[in-house]
């Protein structure tokens, strides 16, 4: 990645930014726990605790996702929108999600309701920072979409059909898989924080984003492993 990286964020970290970024990528890319990532790194000679990996994901996950979002090409002009319920602490919440025709996640939002006001809030979040508007929006038959669309995106074609929105409905499956693996999400903030980073990082294919080199299984402090190139790059010789 060509954008400058704030190396001060890695100050006082024992490992270089390349290893930190790889640990974060492993957690979000695959259905792994922090302990699983700990064992995978240990197999490469990197001794780090699962608690440190949790802190890496909490501190750097969103910033990596933001960088990937900025460098991605412009998404498609056909947006699929859908919502699915989540049970958080015994209360029902709704996860709103938008994807384009290629399945790229555009944005997500967790809300308590799925009425017109909630739909308008999601539309505004979705359009924030976009330099274009979609050609067509595809949703299910929930009336809140049509009411919000008439105010936020008048003039945009809106298709509502049960079977046209399979693209958005299928995009919920990885979230459900992670939800089961994590034994449920803890709070609305936890869902929003995790999925905001999970979408861009989880969809990043390894071969397209990473140049792999074999690492020795000893001396983890001297390992130079250029993974997730550009997201965690720091000047040569800096120790974190």
Write the layout of secondary structure elements.
Layout: H1 17-29, H2 34-43, H3 50-71, E1 78-88, E2 91-100, E3 105-111, H4 116-127, E4 136-139, H5 143-152, E5 157-160, H6 166-170, H7 173-181, H8 188-202, H9 206-209
Parallel strand pairs: 1-4, 4-5
Antiparallel strand pairs: 1-2, 2-3
Description:
The protein has a domain of 108 residues: Nucleotidyltransferase, domain 5, CATH 3.30.420. The protein contains 9 helices and 5 strands; from the N terminus they run αααβββαβαβαααα. The longest helix is centred in the N-terminal third of the chain and has 22 residues. The protein is elongated and about 55 Å long.
| Low-confidence runs | 206-229, 233-240
Rg from alpha-carbon coordinates: 20 Å
Mean pLDDT: 81
Strand order of the largest sheet: 3-2-1-4-5
Topology pattern, helix = H, strand = E: HHHEEEHEHEHHHH
The class by helix and strand makeup works out as: alpha/beta
What is the CATH architecture assignment of the domain at 78-185? 2-Layer Sandwich
CATH fold call of the domain at 78-185:
Nucleotidyltransferase, domain 5
What is the CATH superfamily classification of the domain at 78-185?
Ribonuclease H-like superfamily/Ribonuclease H
Give the helix proportion (percent range).
Answer: 40-55%
The main pleated sheet reads as:
5 strands, mixed
Number of helices: 9
The 3D shape can be described as elongated
Q: Give the C-level CATH assignment of the domain at 78-185.
A: Alpha Beta
Proportion of strand residues? 15-25%
**How many DSSP E strands?**
5
Q: How widely separated are the two ends?
A: 19 Å
């Amino acid at each position: 990645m060509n954008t400058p990286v704030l190396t001060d964020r890695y100050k006082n970290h024992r490992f270089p930014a390349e290893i930190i970024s790889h640990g974060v990528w492993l957690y979000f890319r695959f259905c792994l726990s922090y302990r699983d990532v700990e064992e995978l790194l240990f197999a490469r000679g990197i001794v780090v605790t699962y608690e440190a990996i949790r802190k890496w994901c909490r501190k750097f996950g969103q910033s990596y996702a933001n960088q990937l979002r900025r460098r991605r090409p412009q998404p498609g002009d056909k947006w699929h929108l859908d919502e699915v319920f989540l049970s958080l602490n015994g209360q029902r919440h709704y996860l709103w999600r938008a994807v384009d025709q290629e399945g790229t996640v555009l944005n997500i939002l967790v809300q308590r309701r799925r009425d017109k006001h909630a739909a308008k809030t999601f539309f505004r979040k979705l359009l924030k920072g976009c330099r274009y508007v979609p050609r067509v929006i595809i949703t299910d038959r929930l009336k809140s979409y049509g009411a919000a669309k008439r105010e936020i995106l008048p003039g945009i074609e809106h298709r509502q059909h049960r079977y046209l929105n399979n693209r958005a409905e299928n995009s919920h499956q990885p979230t459900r898989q992670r939800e089961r693996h994590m034994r449920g999400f803890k709070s609305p903030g936890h869902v929003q924080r995790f999925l905001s980073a999970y979408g861009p990082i989880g969809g990043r294919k390894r071969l397209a984003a990473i140049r792999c080199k074999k690492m020795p299984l000893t001396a983890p402090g001297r390992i130079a492993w250029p993974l997730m190139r550009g997201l965690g790059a720091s000047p040569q010789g800096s120790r974190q």
